[in-house]
Amino acid sequence: MATVQRFEDLVVWKLARELYQNIAHIIEEKKQKMDYAFIRQIDSSSGSIMDNIAEGFERGNRKEFIQFLGYAKGSCGELRSQTYRMRDKQLISEEEFQAILNLCQRTSNLIFRLMTKLQQSSIPGSRHK
Predict the structure, then answer these.
(1) Is the pLDDT of residue 129 over 70?
(2) CATH number of the domain at 8-120, please?
(3) Dihedral of CA 18/56/60/66: which sign?
(4) 64-77: buried (b, 16+ CB within 10 Å) or exposed (e) per residue?
C-alpha cells in the first residue's frame, strides 16, 4: 500500500473540496436572499473542513493529524446544521438540501474512518522519520 505524499491526493480532502464547491455555488446563486453574516458562516464552515484536513496532514504528526481531522468533522456537523437553516429559510430546494446532507454525511463518515485507521496505526508521521 502506497503512502500518500500530498493532502491533495487524499480522497477525503477531495470530497471535502467537492462539498465546498457545492456550497460556494449555492452561495453565488442565492446570495441575494442571504444576509452577509450567514454567507460568511456557511462559507467558513464548508472551507474549514478541507482546510483542517490539509493542515493536519501537513503537520506531519499522526496525533496532530487526528486532532485536525476532529476539527474537520466538527465543521462538517456545523455545515449540516447550517444546511437545515438554509432549508428552513427556504433558501434551497428539498433536492439541494438532500444532496448537501448526503455529501456532508459521506464526508463525515470518511473523516471518521480515517481517524480510526490513524488511531490504530503505529506510524508516528512524516515529521518523525
Answers:
(1) no
(2) 1.20.1440.60
(3) negative
(4) bbbebbebbbbbbe
